[in-house]
Each structure stands twice: as C-alpha cells, then as structure tokens.
C-alpha cells in the first residue's frame, strides 16, 4: 500500500512494489497484520515533514521472520515477532525494532501494540505522574489511552478517563474513573477528584482547560494538538527506545496486566476505510490491517 501524493484516504493505492530486504541490524518479516495508527494518516496528509514520494504506509506489524540482517543475534528465520519498521501495510516489511510475540497472542492482536505502548510509556514518563497521584486522560479509549490506563493502574496511579458515552463501561473495565466529553466536562472531572497531571490524546482543543484543572502547564502533555505551544503545553512526538518498550509490552502482556482489544480488522485493500475510521476517532482499543 502506498501513496504518490499527499491527501485524503483516496490517495492510497495497492501496488506491486519491489521487495524490501533486511539491512544491518534489521529483520524482514512476512507480514500477517499491521497496526493502524493516527500517525499513518497524518503522514499521508503531509503533516509530518518531508517525505519522499511515492511512500509506503504503516509503522507497526506482526509476522514471521524470513530474513535476518547482518549483526542480528537471538532471532531466527521462522520466529514470530511484533515490532516497528516502515511500510508495514505490505506482504513483506523490514523492522528496525522487534520482540518475540508473547505466548497466546495472535498476529492480529500483536500488531496493535508496538507504537501504542512506546507512546504510553514515554508520555507517562514525560508528564511526571507518580504513584498515589491522579492523572486525567483526554481520549482514553483508543490504543494509547487503553495502554496508559493499564500501565498507570499497575503503577498505583488513579486515572480519570474521558471518552464518548459509548465507551464509559470500557474505561471502567480498565480501572479508570470514567466521564464523558461535552458541555460541563470540567465540572464533571472536578467531581471525580483533583488532578495532578493530564494527557491529551485526542487533540480536541481542551488544553487550556487541562492546564486549569492541573494548575500547571508543565503537568499537561499532548500528542495530538498542534496548538500546544500557544497554550504553554508540551507536545510529545519523538519516540524513545522502541526495543525497551517492546520488551515491557511483552512482559505486561505475559503477566496478564496489559490487553488492548482489536476493535476492527481490515483487508489490505481496505486500508482507506481503516484510515477514515481511525480519523473519525471514538476508537475502543486498536484497528489493524490483515495481510
């Protein structure tokens, strides 16, 4: 799957492309499933810096190793892995970071974890929330929000999650105090408790209210609102250590402390529909492409 010009989902094309090969420190996988992330359609729209066109789509994938690059140890052809690379909406993809799939996890499930868990771990660290404190999460029902809620709970952090009315029970299942968007949301949050830190995962124009609730712009962080600087809020967009995040994801999944459901799966030819649904928001868990 690729695009030759920036634009809406209609620019995506299923094409025959030359097979990629694993370079030093990389592995190639036969892709079984690819994760759908908001960054995928943001890149397609041209929101993130220079991109050489035509370009492939996708960062996350799960599959079977079929080529091992120079200098790679501890992994062999035939191993099932999940990880992060480039142009993962494809039959074959090269990964730059990976981990063995935890036992019992399907390829469909595994594909939804890599970028999501890296982001969740990074923003929890950057916002500086600690055990015994309360974290407010705007856009809590998506992939990153689902991971944040569960990781925070394991760390002894109370989470107030905001999502659509349809996702309130889902947030409660993940251990959050749940409330809805819309008029009066600030007061509804106050009724649930004081807020020590806040994360904006939805980019829905609520940064000033989040600063008001925390009392400190340094305790608010967004991954979705490009107006962060105007509100005095930090924007987090640079990934940390993906290998470390994958190892932590594998640990949490294996211990039954992290589970992100797949809301919907799409055929590779239906990638445009996956982008439309992702951009519409209100996701519960993850969306993936099956290859």
Automatic annotation (TrEMBL):
It is found in: Cytoplasm. It comes from the Bacteria. It comes from Amycolatopsis dongchuanensis. Keywords: Cytoplasm, NADP, RNA-binding. CDD domains: MDR_like_2 (cd05289). Homotetramer. This is NADP-dependent oxidoreductase. Residues 7-289 form the Enoyl reductase (ER) domain. Its main location: cytoplasm. Pfam families: ADH_N, ADH_zinc_N_2.
């Amino acid at each position: 799957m690729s695009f030759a010009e920036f634009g809406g989902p209609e620019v995506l094309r299923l094409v025959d492309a030359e097979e990629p090969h694993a370079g030093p420190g990389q592995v190639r996988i036969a892709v079984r499933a690819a994760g759908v992330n908001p960054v995928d359609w943001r890149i397609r729209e041209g929101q993130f810096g220079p991109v050489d066109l035509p370009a492939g789509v996708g960062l996350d994938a799960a599959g079977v190793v079929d080529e091992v690059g120079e200098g790679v140890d501890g992994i062999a052809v035939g191993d099932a892995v999940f990880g992060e690379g480039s142009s993962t909406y494809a039959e074959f993809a090269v990964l730059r970071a990976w981990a063995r799939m935890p036992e019992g996890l399907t390829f469909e499930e595994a594909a939804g974890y890599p970028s999501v868990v890296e982001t969740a771990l990074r923003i929890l660290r950057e916002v500086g929330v600690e055990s015994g404190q309360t974290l407010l999460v705007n856009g809590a029902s998506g992939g990153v929000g689902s991971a944040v809620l569960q990781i925070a709970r394991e760390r002894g952090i109370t989470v107030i999650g905001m999502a659509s009315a349809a996702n309130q029970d889902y947030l409660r299942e993940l251990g959050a105090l749940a409330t809805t968007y819309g008029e009066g949301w600030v007061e509804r949050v106050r009724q649930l408790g004081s807020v020590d830190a806040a994360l904006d995962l939805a980019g829905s124009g609520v940064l000033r209210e989040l600063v008001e609730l925390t009392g400190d712009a340094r305790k608010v962080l967004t991954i979705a609102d490009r107006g962060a600087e105007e509100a005095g809020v930090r924007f987090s967009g640079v990934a940390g250590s993906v290998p470390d995040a994958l190892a932590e994801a594998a640990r949490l999944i294996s211990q039954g402390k992290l589970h992100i459901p797949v809301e919907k799966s799409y055929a590779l030819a239906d990638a445009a529909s996956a982008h439309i649904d992702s951009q519409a928001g209100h996701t519960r868990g993850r969306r993936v492409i099956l290859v």
